[in-house]
Structure formats: C-alpha cells, structure tokens
Amino acid sequence: MRSTPHKSLGAAAVTVAALAALVLPGTPAAAQPSTTSASCSPAQVVANGGFESGTSPWAASTGVITNSSSQSAHSGSSYAWLDGYGSAHTDTLTQSVTIPAGCSAASLTFWLHIDTAETTSSTAYDRLTAKIGDTTLATYSNLDAHTGYVQESFDVSSFAGQTVDLSFTGEEDYSLQTSFVLDDIALTTSGGSTPPPADSTRTPATPSYTISLSSDTSGTVWTGHESVTFTNASATALSEVYLRLWDNYHGTCNSMPIKVSGVSGGTAGALSVACTALKVDLPAPLGQGQSTTIGFDLSISVPSGADRFGHDGAFSFIGNALPVLAIRDGAGWHLDPYTNNGESFYSLAADYKVTLDHPSTLLVPATGTSTDTPGSSGRTVTTATATKVRDFAWAAGPFTKISGTSSAGVAVNVYAVSGISSSSAQSMLSTAERAVDAHAARFGAYPYGELDAVIDNNYWFGGMEYPGFVLDLVSTTALTHEIGHQWWYGIVGDDEYHSPWLDEAFTDYATDLALGKTGANCWNNVSWGSSAEKITNSMAYWDAHPSRYSTVVYGYGKCALHDLRRVLGDTAMAKLLKDYAAAHWYGVSTTAEFKAAAQAATSTDLTSFWNLHRIEG
Fold first, then answer.
1. Which residues of the chain have pLDDT under 70?
2. Are residue 133 and residue 222 in the same domain, yes or no?
3. Alpha-carbon dihedral of residues 346, 387, 363, 481, nearest 10 degrees?
4. Is 608 a member of any domain?
5. How far apart are the C-alpha atoms of 569 and 402, rounded to whole Å?
6. Which of 489, 523, 546 is the last residue of a domain?
7. Which of helix, strand or coil describes residue 426?
8. Measuring CA to CA, which residue among 479, 352, 349 is closest to residue 426?
9. Strand 451-455 versus strand 411-416 pairing type
10. CA dist 189 → 79, 137, 346 (Å)
C-alpha cells in the first residue's frame, strides 16, 4: 500500500497522441552484440510482468506495485501504479532484462491506463517516460488520458545480445493528479541466427486449408481439426513454419482462446509474441518447389463482447480464429504483434474448405460459398469453400437473414442480430448491392461468389473486413468502406502491420468515389502532429499514437490519393488503380510498387508530391 493516499481521480479524460515515440537508433558501436552464431528459443524475458508474484524482480518506488481497488488491473489483481498524488512526486519501476544474441526479433509490449484530474487540453504537466537502456521509447502525459487500457508496442530487436534496464519513470507536478497504470509487461523474443533469405520471395506459398469443426449448443466453443498444405516458393529451404494464433490476444498465455494440440507433419515448438505465434519445426528442410502438410487439433473459445472475435449475447463473431501461416520473405519471418487499433493480418491468398457442424437453430454465415446439409439430430453441417482468400471468418447465431442480388449478379446476404429493424436490414442490403457493383466497376469484377454482411450496432470498432464476409453497424458509409476492402486487402493484399495505408487509405478513397465524394480541398485541412508523423507509418507507430491513426492513415491518406488524382487527371487515375489492381490480383502491394506505377502514369516528376504528402517507401 502507498504511504500517502491518492487524490480523487478526475472525472474527465482527454485522449490525444503521445508526446513522443522515438524510433530506436542502431546499437552504438561500443555496445554491439557479439557476432558469434547463437540460437534463439522464442521466449518472454520479462519476469513477473503481470505483478501477480509480489515485487521481485522489479525495483520499484514504495507502493508502486499494488492490488489496490482504487485502480483496476488489466488482468489478474495486481498492477503498477505510478504517481497519482496530486503533488510533486516521482515514481520509478525498473527491471534488468537480457535479450539473447541469437534472437532476430524482440518486441516489448505493455498495457497502459492513464487518468488525470488536469483540465488542460494543451499542456503536459505530468509525464511517464518508458526507456530501454539509455533509449527513450516513448513519453506519455496527462494529455494522453483515456478510459481503460491501451496496449503499447515497440521493436527492441536492436538490443539483442545485451542486458539492459527496462524502466518507467513517472513525474508529477505540484497539483492535480495524473495516474499512470501499467500491467502485463512482456518482452517477447523470436527468430534464430539463420540469416534472412537471400531472395525476397514470399513463402510458404499456395496454402490450402482444410478445417472441420463442431460447435457447442451456443456456437461459442468449436473443436475439431485443421490441416494446411503449402509449397516453399523460395530458393532458401524452409526448416520451420509459424502459425499465427491471432485471437490469443483476447486471452492470456495461461488461458488461451485458441489452442493447438496433436501437431502432425512437424514438431510444435514454443509459443511466442504473447502466444500468438507457434513455431512448427519441419521433419526435414523443404526445398524450393517442394510441398508438405501439417495438421493439428484445434479448440476455439469465443469470449464475451461484440468484437471481431467475441459474442454479443447469442450472436458469435469469429474472425482471425483459424491459425494461418506467417509469411517469410527477404526480411525474415513476419511475427508482428496483434494490434487492436488496426490490423496485423499479413497473409498470402489461400484456398479454404471449412466444415462447420452446428445446431440447426444457428445460422452460420461464412467466407466463401456455403451449402447446408442435415447433420445429426437437430444439427446442420455448413460447408464453406473459398478460393484465393487471405483469411476465413464466420459467425453463428439466430440471425434474421435477407438476401438479394446486385445488378452485376453478385449474391448478397445480410444477417442481422436481434434489435436491427427490418427496414435497417433492407437498407444495408441495398447499400451492399450498390457498393459491390461500384467497386467492381472501378477495380475489377468481384471474385468471391457471395457476399455476407453481419450487422450489429453494438460493434465498438464500427466495421471489420474479411474476404466475402464483413461485420458492420447500420451505416451506409461504413458498409461501403468494408466492402471496398474486398479489393484493398482481400484481392490486392498488403502487409497490414507495416503499411496500413495501403488498404485503409485506398479503401477510404474508394468509398468516397462510390458515394460521389470528390475530396475537394480535403488536403487543405492537414495538420501534422510531429515531424515523425507520416501517412506510411507502421502500426507500431500508430499504437503509440492511437488518437492520430484514423486522422492520418484514413483521412490524410485518402486526401493524398484525391490529390494524386488531380495531378494525374481523373481518367489516368482510374486507369492506374484498375491496372494496379489487375497487376496485383491475389498478390501483395507495397508502397514502392504503387509509387513506381503512379510515376509511370505521368510525365510529371512526383518526387515533391510524395515528400509533401509524407508517403515514404
């Protein structure tokens, strides 16, 4: 317990961007790790990161580590509470950590809650500084107060081979409390000493997934088997693959919603990246052009909550629940952390055959084209087949379903939860029919057969896209946007963690066009938050500056594309995007490739355009 009670917490909280989140510099020459070859077993190197085991091995100011009921833990019952006195005060929290030399990837994550009694919207009176070694990762202040916890994430791989202090320092001025509350601190390492592939080929390629699952009576627990066949497209042999168990973000490593067991065709290794990545060692290196299959038993438990993975009462939404193969390319394995602000779901186009055995009282909309056949007593078997999709999602519940066909012949289904009026459902069906045709006319024919839209006004996130399957509120703009993602993410893929603008900005631009908006003068309203802020920043940056994410990536991003249209002309811009989509159909887009395509479409040198709009890459 603290020796001095905290002041009453302020009733209001202002959410703005963090004061600073600095890019980690390269390791100083004097501190470079040894170049001796070393191996890396994926591990979590912070001890007692949830503060449930007392104070050790943390060095902390008196009373910082606590289970006081005056604040809430992110998980468990204990947490670290820095400051909150409303008087001049400094609190510290430090642990020495060792990042193994053989690890090519190291990610620091922590959950942070800030509340304040300060009333200013412009002055940072109280600050929390997060550091590793002598490097400042980020500085937060009373201006960053927000309801609940937000996860922060930083790449600290440049510290491989070093033992350094991980430290947090909270400094409070003479009046009006600000509380900085930390929990579930983790530093996850992965990646061995094997150098990255010599070529940039993305692999494992041409994955084909076969899944058979059976649900409980509510549709919230699914168990069964999954297998995936894949080919190594790279000249560098594959000795292992990684499965992304993305939805373990929604639990803990001690209580995982996604559980894999009984692996065949390989040997299961350690879980890493907060238990969202599972290494599977192959029995023998897989050479270029060779194929193999791995399989495993799978258990999925859907948590409560109207989320992209969660259930809203009787209605379950099951996105990113199926383990999918991570990508290896010239940069090595992509094992980025889950982000709740946007997406991390970088995957190659794959084929899926998914069999879902469920009570007949539940409708089960899903990615792909579905057929229903009678199962055992009172049950139905829904078989969904999807070709060249990047993920597979489904829902389960006593939905109200209405169906239609767009003018271009696309079958569209709307599944509404209870509480959605029939007129609202019909409006969303009409919106979906118009939107799918409008986007197809601009970027190429819709290839996924049917399109399912699951409507629930309780979604906190607004809407979410999956191939042939979207979650959305009753909103014309939002549904038009999510359907636009069928092209910009679904058909034309991208690395959503490192280049979120390539799907979000392009989709928001497509939404404007579909709704007849010209984006006139929208670039005139741009005001950068800092010199580090760019349209092309990764989710690591936006997770440290969450309040700026939609403003810059969606808003400034689409305005930049409207500006590019004005430079190229309407006809040339329309041709650029249609040709670019065709050239990257079922492939992966990069910023460099798009910039090159845009430059090829005009005799005007676009260098100053990219610089002005802060589009780098």
1. 1-41, 192-199
2. no
3. 50
4. yes
5. 40
6. 489
7. helix
8. 479
9. parallel
10. 23, 17, 20
Six token digits for residue 75:
């998980």
* φ and ψ at residue 134, rounded to 5 degrees: -95, 5
Q: Which domain holds residue 276?
A: 197-389
Confirm or deny that 311 is annotated as ligand binding: no
In a domain, 27, yes or no: no
Q: Is the dihedral of CA 26, 31, 35, 36 positive or negative?
A: negative
- Which amino acid is it at 241? V
Residues 6+ apart with CB under 8 A from 73: 50, 51, 67, 79, 183
How far apart CA 11 and CA 58 sit, in angstroms, is 31
Residue 152 lies in a domain: yes
Taking Cα atoms as reference points, which of 110, 83, 73 lies closest to residue 95? Answer: 110
First to last CA, the chain: 50
pLDDT tens-digit readout, 400-442: 999 999 999 999 999 999 999 999 999 999 999 999 999 999 9
CA distances from 473 to 86, 200, 316, 478 (A): 41, 39, 15, 7
pLDDT at 40: 65
Judgement on whether residues 251 and 368 belong to the same structural domain of the protein: yes
The two tokens of residue 207 are 């994955």
Beta bridge partners of 271: 278
Residue 504 marked ligand-binding: yes
Instruction: Let me know whether 144 and 58 are in one domain.
Output: yes
Instruction: Point out the catalytic residue in the list 149, 459, 509, 554.
Output: 554
pLDDT digits (tens, 9 = 90+) for 282-304: 999 999 999 999 999 999 999 99
The residue among 394, 214, 210, 390 whose CA lies nearest residue 296 is 210
The confidence score (pLDDT) of residue 420 equals 98
User: What phi, psi does 195 have (nearest 5°)?
Assistant: -65, 155
Residue 482: active-site member = yes
> Are 69 and 42 a contacting pair, CB within 8 Å?
no
Report the number of secondary-structure helices (H) and strands (E) in the chain: 9, 33
> pLDDT value at position 347?
97
Residues 259, 318 contacting (CB under 8 angstroms): no
465 shares a domain with 351 = no
Is there a catalytic annotation at residue 554? Answer: yes
With CA atoms as reference, report the closest residue to 495 among 482, 486, 504: 504
Catalytic residue among 118, 465, 482, 533: 482
In the numeric block, the tokens 């980025």 are attached to 336
If you count them, how many residues does the chain have? 617
CATH number for the domain spanning 410: value is 1.10.390.10
* Claim: this prediction has a pTM higher than 0.90: no
**Which DSSP state fits 145?**
-
Cα–Cα distance measured from residue 519 to residue 514, given in angstroms and rounded to the nearest whole number: 12
In the listed set 156, 190, 224, which residue is the last one of a domain according to the structure?
Answer: 190
Q: How far is CA 466 from the centre of its chain?
A: 13
Is the same domain home to 406 and 505?
Answer: no
Q: Is 300 helix (H, G, I), strand (E, B) or coil?
A: strand
In terms of domains, do 208 and 243 share one?
yes
The pairing of beta strand 469-472 with beta strand 451-455: parallel
Domain membership of residue 549 (yes or no) is: yes
Q: How many CA atoms lie within 13 A of 74 on its CB side?
A: 26
292 forms beta bridges with: 230
Q: Are residues 216 and 282 in the same domain?
A: yes
Q: How many domains does the chain have?
A: 4
465 is annotated as contributing to ligand binding: no
